[in-house]
Amino acid sequence: MRTSVIALTLLLAGTAFAQTPAAPAGKAARGAQMMDNLSVLLDLTDAQRPQVQAILEQQHAEMKAAFEQAKASGVKPDFTQMKAQHDQLQAETIQKLTPVLSATQLQKFQVLEQMQHEHFRHRGPPPGAPPPGQ
Fold first, then answer.
1. What span, in angstroms and rounded, lies between the C-alpha atoms of 102 and 130?
2. Domain span at 30
3. CB neighbour list of residue 100: distance below 8 Å, 6 or more residues apart
4. Contact call for residues 11 and 52 (beta carbons, < 8 A)
5. What distance in Å separates the CA atoms of residue 79 and residue 77, rounded to the nearest whole number?
6. Residues 6+ apart with CB under 8 A from 104
7. Are 55 and 96 in contact (CB under 8 A)?
8. Looking at 1-134, which runs of residues are DSSP E strands?
9. Is residue 103 part of a domain?
10. Total tally of structural domains belonging to the chain
11. Do 15 and 86 form a contact (C-beta atoms < 8 A)?
12. Distance between CA 15 and CA 35 in Å, rounded?
């Protein structure tokens, strides 16, 4: 059961939501399945689904762009800065989802997001990064 819950929370990672026209069929199918799962978990209506998908795709594109920009600078991305930027994008995503989702749906989304963060927190920061909160 715990494995199923963790697997479902991974759908919020955002990596499979942004699909380019040339994306391999496997990635597109995985992204569609993840969106289907999120639709079920949040009880999205037919009107909400494309709105939520667009918001999550935008979030993924912004996160990817930030990472690519840091990588292109020739300097290894700083874990603390990237985490702060990720947290900011997550907050913006919640703001964008607030008018689209009901209070209950938004609460479910936030719980799933929190579970995802807890799952990835167990992996910890990369070696040499300062501990969280410093």
1. 38
2. 2-121
3. 48, 51, 52, 55
4. no
5. 6
6. none
7. yes
8. none
9. yes
10. 1
11. no
12. 11
User: Tens digit of pLDDT for each residue in 20-43?
Assistant: 444 456 777 887 888 899 999 999
Decide if 111 is inside a domain.
Answer: yes
Kindly report whether the global pTM for this prediction surpasses the value 0.85.
Answer: no
Look at residue 101 in the predicted model and tell me its pLDDT.
95
Q: Determine, yes or no, domain membership for 127.
A: no
Measured from the Cβ of residue 2, the count of other Cβ atoms closer than 10 Å reads 6
Length of the chain: 134
Distance between CA 81 and CA 88 in Å, rounded?
Answer: 11
Tokens of 58: 């935008």
- Spatial distance between the Cα atoms of 49 and 40, rounded to a whole number of angstroms: 10
The residues near 88 (Cβ < 8 Å, ≥ 6 apart) are none
Q: How many CB atoms lie within 10 A of CB 78?
A: 13
Distances 122 to 5, 44, 81, 88, 116 between C-alpha atoms, Å: 16, 30, 19, 21, 10
**At which residue do the structure tokens 């209506």 appear?**
45
45-86: pLDDT as tens digits: 999 999 999 999 998 898 888 878 877 888 777 778 878 888
